[in-house]
Amino acid sequence: MRGIVRVAVPIRHWSLFDYTCEPIASIGCRVIVPFGHRRILGIVVDHAETSEYPEDKLRCVSSILDEEPVLSSTLIHSLQWVAQYYQQPIGEVLSTALPKAIRVGKPLIPKFDIVYRLTDFGQQFDANELNRAKVQKKAFELLKSEARALGPEALRHVGSTWKNALKVLETKGLVTAEPRYTNFSVNGQNLIDDLTESQLKAREQILQALDSYRCFLIQGVTGSGKTEVYLHVIAKVLETGGQAMMLVPEIGLSPQLEQRVQSALGVPVASFHSGLTDTQRHKTWWMALSGKAKVVIGTRSVVFLPFKKLKIIVIDEEHDTSFKQQERVHYHARSVALHRAYSEKFPIVFGTATPSLETVHAARSGRAEILMLPERATRIEMPTVKLIDLSRERASDSLSNSLLSQIKKRIKSGEQSLIFINRRGFAPVVICPSCRWTAKCSDCDARLIFHQSDHQLHCHLCFKKFPMMRQCPQCLSENVHLFGTGTQRVEQELQREIPGARVIRIDRDTTRSYTEFERRLARIQKGEVDVLVGTQMLSKGHHFPNVTLVGILNVDQGFYSMDFRAMEHLVQQVLQVAGRSGRAKKPGEVYIQTMHPDSEYFDCIRDHDYLSFADLELDERRQANQPPFNHYALLRANSLVAGEEIEFLRVARETAMSLPVKHSDRQVRVFDIVQSPIQKISNRHRAQLLVGSAHVAFLMHFLKAWLPHLAKIPKKGKLRWNLDVDPVDFS
Ligand SMILES: [Zn+2]
Ligand SMILES: [Zn+2]
Fold it and tell me: Is the pLDDT of residue 13 over 90?
C-alpha cells in the first residue's frame, strides 16, 4: 500500500517532512529519504492522508531500514512532547534520543561478545576423550574448572586456534555459545527481606498502583533504605514480565550499583550514561528495546530509551541538578520521565531525603503521594546538628577552634571527620588591599582562584590558568592577599593545626576519574584517613560509616545569592552531607559554621525537617511569583562582539511585545533584557531575557508564536542563542 509518511530527520530543523512511501513504513521505523541533494536517515513519526504539498511534488522514501519499529508510538509521542514543551527541533530531540549506530543506519542488533559454557552432557564428559585435540581439551578443562560461562578474554589463552576448537566442542554438544549481555554474571534473586515497618508500607502503597499512572515520593533520610524499597517494587514488576528504568545522578552511577541491583534482583541489568562508548550505548539501547535487559540504570539520557515493556520508572536523588540538560536540547529528565509514566500508564517513584520544591509542590497539590521513611533502616539516631556562630567565635582561618578541637577528639578515638566546603582551590579572591585590585580572568567575568598545587591562578569558568603575581599590577604593592577559602586551604590548615593527621581531599582537582574517586573512597573505608575534605562530590550517595563528625563551612553564600533556588540547594546540600555521618554504630555530630545562626532555615536543618523548610520556602516562592508557581523560559544570547547579544535580545523583545498575546501579568510577562550575572565567559558577552506566566499553557502558546520569529532574526557575526524552558541555571 502506498501512502504519505511524515518523517523527522536528525538535523536542527523544526518541522517534519512528507514523503510518499510504498509499501508504507510503520511509525517508528527508520527510513532513508532524499533531502536536498543528499540522502539521509529519518524516523517515520506519523502517517498522513494528505500533505500541504501537492502529491506529485512529494519525493519518495528511498528505503525502509526496519521491519519492526525501533521507537514505539507512545515513545514518539513523548519525544514530540519534549520538542514542543522545550521548544526544540524534533530532529534534534531524536538525535539526542538515539544512539549513534542507529542514527547512521547500522543494523539494529549490535554485536555482543560470545561466551561459552558446558552443556549438561559436557558436565558428565571425560576430558581424556579429547586427548588427541590439545586446544579443545584445554578449553574444555578450563570451562570445567571455572564452572561458569567464559568469554574470549579467558579462552584465548588456551591456544591461537581457540575459536575453532570451541566450534568443534559446540558441534560435539559439549559446549553452548551465547551472547554476553551483561558485565556481571546473573545468579538467583537475593533481596533483603528484613524491611522496616515504613519500608513495607511504602512498598505496599506502590504495589497497589502498578499498571496505572501514579507518582510517589519516597522521602527518606539518608540511610533509611530507599533503595531496598525500589528493589522490592521492581522485583514485583519483573514477576509480571515488565521492565524497569532507574535514573541516578551523574556521580551516583557506578559499576557497584549496577552489580548490586543485578545481584539483588537476579536479572540482567544494563547501564546507560555519557561515559560509555557508542557501541556500549547501542548495546544497552537494544537490550532495553528487545527486553534482554530487565532493568536499565542510567543518567538523564536513559529517559529516552525504548523499552519492550516498561512498567516503572525510579528516580533516585530526584532533586539532583544533573537531571537537567543544559546544552543542545535543554530538557529535564524528571519532567520527561513523568510524561512517559503518564502516557505509558505506569507508576513513577522518586526517592530522596531532600526533594525538589517542584516535587514537594506536586505532593502538596495532590499530584504526588509522599511515602515517609522516617527512621533509618540501620536504626541509628540521626546526627545532632550544632551551629558555630562565627560572629562570636572568630575563626583565625577557615576552621574555628571549636571545630578543630572536635576533629582532634575524633582522631584520638580513631573516628573519622568530614569537612565539607563547596569550593575547590586554595583561595577564591586574590586582592591588593592598598588599591582594591582583584585578579580576574582576561576572558571571563570571573575572579581567579589561587591553586596551591600548581601555584597558579585558575579560572573555573573557562579553565584558563595564569601565573600567580607577587606584585599588584596596578599599584605595584608587594602585599597581595589571598582571601577566602577553598578545599586546598582547609587541607593545609588541618595539616598545620593537627600535625600527623591523615587528610584526604576529594574535589575535581584530585579526583578526575571515577577510578581515582573509588581509590580514595576505598582508603577512607579502610580507615587509612582521619579527615576527609571535599566538595559536593562527598554529598552524593556514598556512605562513610566511620565518620562521626561533619563540619560544614562557607554556607552563608546561600543567603546572599541572587538565584532564587540558592536556599533550596543550600539546605539540600547541608542535609545530604549531614547524612553521611554516624551510619554505623555511633550517632554523628554536625557542626555548621555561620554568621547567621538565628536564621529559621537552621531550625529545619537542626530538626532534620526538610519538609518544613520546603513549605516555608514554597510560601516565599508563591508570594514572589516564582517557580513552581510561575513558569519561566529564558532566552540567552552571547557573542564575541560586545553589544550584539543585547541587540539580538532587543529585537527578540520587540517581536515578543508585538505578538497577539496579552501581555498582562495574568498571561505572559516579558521581563527586561539584563546582562547575565556572569557577564562574560571565554570572551563571549552574555545577556538574557526572561519571560514567564502563571499558566504553563499561556507560556507554551506564547513561545510557539515567538520562536519562528527568533529563528528569523538576522544573526550578526558570532552570535549564539538558546531558549531554556524551566531554566535551572540563571548564571
Ligand atoms: Zn576564564
Ligand atoms: Zn594594588
Answer: no
Stretch among 108-122, 224-238, 375-389 having the lowest mean pLDDT: 375-389
- CATH code of the region 384-427+484-617: 3.40.50.300
126-130, 293-297, 531-535 — which is least confidently predicted? 126-130
Query: Which ligand is closest in space to the CA of residue 457?
Result: 1
Domain boundaries, the chain: 3-103, 114-179, 197-373, 384-427+484-617, 631-725
Question: Closest ligand to 475 CA?
Answer: 2
Residue 469: nearest ligand to its CA?
A: 2
Note the pLDDT tens digit of each residue in 171-223. Answer: 999 999 988 887 777 778 888 888 989 999 999 999 999 999 999 999 987 67
Distance 457 CA to ligand 2 centre (A): 17
User: How far is residue 599's CA from residue 594's CA, in Å, rounded to a whole number?
Assistant: 10
Domain 631-725, CATH: 3.30.70.600
Tell me how far the alpha carbon of residue 319 lies from the centroid of ligand 2, in angstroms.
44
Ligand 2 center to 431 CA (angstroms): 8
User: Where does 3-103 sit in CATH, by number?
Assistant: 3.40.1440.60
462 C-alpha to center of ligand 1: Å?
4
For residue 557, report the distance from its CA to the centre of ligand 1, in Å: 21
Cα separation, 571 vs 249, whole angstroms: 18
Residue 725 burial class via C-beta count within 10 angstroms: exposed 0-12, middle 13-18, buried 19 and up:
buried
For residues 441 and 448, what is the distance between their CA atoms, to the nearest angstrom?
6
CA of 469 to the centre of ligand 2 (A): 11
Distance from Cα 73 to the centre of ligand 2, integer Å: 65
83 backbone dihedrals φ, ψ, rounded to 5°: -60, -45
Ligand nearest to the CA of 679: 1
CATH fold match for the domains 3-103 and 197-373:
no
pLDDT at residue 664, rounded to an integer: 54
What ipTM did this prediction achieve?
0.96
- Closest ligand to C-alpha of residue 473 is 2
How much distance in Å is there from the Cα of 426 to the middle of ligand 2? 21
> Model confidence at 585, in pLDDT bands (50, 70, 90)?
low
CA of 471 to the centre of ligand 2 (A): 8
Average pLDDT over residues 572-577: 88
Helix, strand, coil proportions of the chain in percent (round to 5)? 35, 25, 40
Q: Ligand 1 center to residue 431 CA distance, Å?
A: 17
* Segment 698-715, tens digit of pLDDT: 999 999 999 989 988 988
Please choose, from the candidates 321, 314, 305, the residue with its C-alpha nearest in 3D space to the C-alpha of residue 358: 321
CATH of domain 197-373: 3.40.50.300
pLDDT tier at 149, thresholds 50, 70, 90: confident
Residues with CB under 5 A from ligand 1 (ion): 441, 443-444, 459, 461-462, 464
- CA torsion 359→93→325→601, rounded to 10°? -20
Closest CA to 187 of 88, 289, 281, 262: 262
